[in-house]
Amino acid sequence: MTYRILQHEKRTDNIRIGRAYEVAGASVESSVKAVTHAITTYHEIAPEEFGKYWSRIAIVDADTLAMIATIYNETEIDSEL
C-alpha cells in the first residue's frame, strides 16, 4: 500500500497532497499500523491548531486519492457540538 496525506487549507481553499509513503509489507496489519502511526503523529504535533489552518486532513491512496482515513474534519467536529 502506498498512501499520501491530503490537507485542505482553510484560508485559501487549496488542497495539498503530500509525497507518497510506501508501507513495508502487503499485509492488512502493516497497512493498519502505518495509518495508525500517521494519525498518531499528526495528533502529537498540535491538534488544537488543526481548525486554524485546515478544514480537513486525510490519508488517501497514493494512486487513486481514495479516502483511507480521516485525521481531522472540521465538519465532523462542528456536527458533534
Features:
81 residues; alpha+beta; 5 strands
Mean pLDDT: 82
Largest sheet: 5 strands, antiparallel
SSE succession: EEEHHEEH
Q: Termini, distance in Å?
A: 35 Å
**Overall body shape:** globular
Tally of separate domains: 1
What percentage of residues falls in helices of 4 or more residues? 25-40%
Number of helices: 3
Strand content: 25-35%
Radius of gyration: 13 Å
* Beta strand count: 5
Low-confidence stretches: none
Which structural class fits the helix and strand makeup? alpha+beta
Account of the 3D structure:
The chain is an alpha+beta fold and 81 residues long. 12% of the residues are buried. Strands 1, 2, 3, 4 and 5 form a 5-stranded antiparallel beta sheet that branches. It is built from 3 helices and 5 strands, in the order βββααββα.
Question: Topology of this protein?
Answer:
Layout: E1 2-9, E2 15-17, E3 21-22, H1 28-45, H2 50-53, E4 54-61, E5 67-73, H3 74-80
Antiparallel strand pairs: 1-2, 1-3, 1-4, 4-5
Write a short abstract of this structure.
The chain is α+β, with helices and mostly antiparallel strands.
